[in-house]
């Protein structure tokens, strides 16, 4: 095993030699999928199902979708299937009876699944709920295909330091960070001038604030390019997903904050770019299909066939770009301010966003209230350095309490203010006071 300066803020992390990651050349690779019933899990298992001789599934986990988990386990026959909700364990055990698949349930079982002997752990649990299992995989020195951006947002310095200490490789699966990973000069990062994260702009790219005031849940989850889960789709609509990706990129790659940019690219063909000091700009292009970055992680450091449509640039005809508008999409500004403040500010940002998005999906607040709740929570919460995962969780809990309070005020005020009208905050601009 050799060392290089990727990924992390200049901190060495392992890069395995050019061989099949499962051990001997062309050997079977053992894979655990955390969050197997979500969109990333679906795509991962589709690829594994097409390459059954090359991959052996060790463990599959889900939180409540027990019927889908049963179907996946009966198809791929992992050694272990875990359901996060303990009340569903009886149904899981019944559905797997006679299959030879071991069943377990509960939060501790999810964490234990991440520690099962595997060559690769796909971290696909959405939100901060994926942090503890993913950290356990890193603690055990696993290669981690990181599809959960919240892990690095909430505990980036802890995770990258632990990865370096335990020899765990962090392989980004987000299409943007995977693109950067593929074209970044990991051996000579000093040659990198800047990173450019591309964004589709979401379903409201051309909408005014007035037009976004009354948008429905159905409109917000209707992404023009990508097929994703509800929470990630809402994050794309607010552009909070790109804000979280700014923070994630700063954790993964040794590039200064002010050299990480966001560029709107509606076609989602150029997945990101890396500009070098000699004027060269390297970009990774591809048909928008999550199976491409997942296939990269599954086969790394080699390549595998993926059933994605070939990129036909002649048919597409043109690729367009435009600057991101932080006035209409304040989530980008809030994420930059949280990144600059450092410490636990990104944890607070993420916790408040999860509360606000859940409330919007439950039709309790308006679309514009999401960013307003995040901003108010950032203003009210205290930030500091977090030296342990327990401290991260404590900050997360406090932030969720504050965000819930802000959400309830907006929910109670909506009838008087108008169904889609966000309740104005009485506080000044966001995170500057915390730094």
TrEMBL record:
It comes from Marinibaculum pumilum. Keywords: Isoprene biosynthesis, Magnesium, Manganese, Metal-binding, NADP, Oxidoreductase. Residues 12-23, 422-435 have a biased composition (Low complexity). NADPH binds at residues 37-40, 64-65, 148, 150, 229. Catalyzes the NADPH-dependent rearrangement and reduction of 1-deoxy-D-xylulose-5-phosphate (DXP) to 2-C-methyl-D-erythritol 4-phosphate (MEP). Mn(2+) binds at residues 174, 176, 245. This is 1-deoxy-D-xylulose 5-phosphate reductoisomerase. Residues 1-26, 411-435 are annotated as: Disordered. It holds the Pfam family DXP_redisom_C. Its EC number is 1.1.1.267. Residues 285-401 form the DXP reductoisomerase C-terminal domain. 1-deoxy-D-xylulose 5-phosphate binds at residues 149, 175-176, 200, 223, 236, 241-242, 245. Belongs to the DXR family. The keyword Mitochondrion does not apply. InterPro entries: DXP_reductoisomerase, DXP_reductoisomerase_C, DXP_reductoisomerase_N, DXPR_C, DXPR_C_sf, NAD(P)-bd_dom_sf. Residues 31-156 form the 1-deoxy-D-xylulose 5-phosphate reductoisomerase N-terminal domain. Pathway: Isoprenoid biosynthesis; isopentenyl diphosphate biosynthesis via DXP pathway; isopentenyl diphosphate from 1-deoxy-D-xylulose 5-phosphate: step 1/6.
């Amino acid at each position: 095993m050799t060392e290089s300066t990727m990924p992390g803020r200049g901190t060495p992390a392992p890069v395995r030699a050019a061989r099949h990651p499962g051990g001997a050349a062309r050997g079977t690779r053992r894979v655990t999928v955390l969050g197997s019933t979500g969109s990333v899990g679906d795509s991962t298992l589709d690829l594994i199902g097409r390459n059954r001789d090359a991959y052996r599934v060790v463990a599959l986990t889900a939180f409540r979708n027990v019927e889908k988990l049963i179907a996946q386990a009966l198809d791929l026959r992992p050694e272990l299937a875990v359901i996060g909700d303990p009340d569903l364990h009886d149904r899981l055990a019944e559905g797997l009876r006679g299959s030879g698949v071991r069943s377990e349930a509960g939060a501790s079982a999810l964490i234990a699944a991440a520690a099962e002997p595997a060559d690769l752990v796909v971290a696909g649990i959405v939100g901060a709920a994926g942090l503890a299992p993913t950290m356990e995989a890193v603690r055990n020195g696993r290669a981690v295909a990181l599809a959960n951006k919240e892990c690095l947002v909430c505990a980036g310095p802890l995770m990258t330091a632990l990865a370096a200490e335990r020899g765990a490789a962090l392989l980004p699966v987000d299409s943007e960070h995977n693109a950067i990973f593929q074209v970044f000069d990991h051996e000579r990062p000093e040659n990198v001038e800047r990173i450019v994260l591309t964004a589709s702009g979401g379903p409201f790219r051309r909408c005014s604030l007035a037009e976004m005031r009354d948008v429905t849940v159905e409109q917000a989850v209707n992404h023009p390019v990508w097929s994703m889960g509800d929470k990630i789709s809402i994050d794309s609509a607010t552009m909070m997903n790109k804000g979280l990706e700014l923070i994630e990129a700063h954790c993964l790659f040794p590039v200064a904050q002010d050299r990480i940019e966001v560029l709107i690219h509606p076609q989602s063909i150029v997945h990101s770019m890396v500009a070098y000091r000699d004027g060269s700009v390297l970009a990774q292009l591809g048909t928008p299909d999550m199976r491409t970055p997942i296939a990269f992680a599954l086969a790394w450091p080699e390549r595998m066939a993926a059933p994605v449509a070939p990129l036909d640039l002649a048919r597409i005809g043109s690729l367009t770009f435009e600057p991101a508008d932080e006035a209409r999409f304040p989530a980008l500004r809030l994420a930059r301010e949280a990144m600059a403040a450092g410490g636990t500010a990104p944890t607070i940002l993420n916790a408040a966003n999860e509360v606000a998005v859940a409330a919007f999906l439950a039709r309790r607040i308006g679309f514009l209230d999401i960013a307003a709740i995040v901003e108010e929570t950032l203003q009210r919460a205290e930030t500091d350095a977090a030296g342990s995962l327990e401290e991260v969780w404590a900050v997360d809990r406090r932030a969720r309490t504050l965000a819930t309070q802000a959400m309830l005020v907006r929910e109670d005020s909506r009838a008087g203010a108008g169904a889609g009208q966000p309740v104005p905050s009485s506080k000044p601009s966001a995170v500057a006071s915390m730094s």
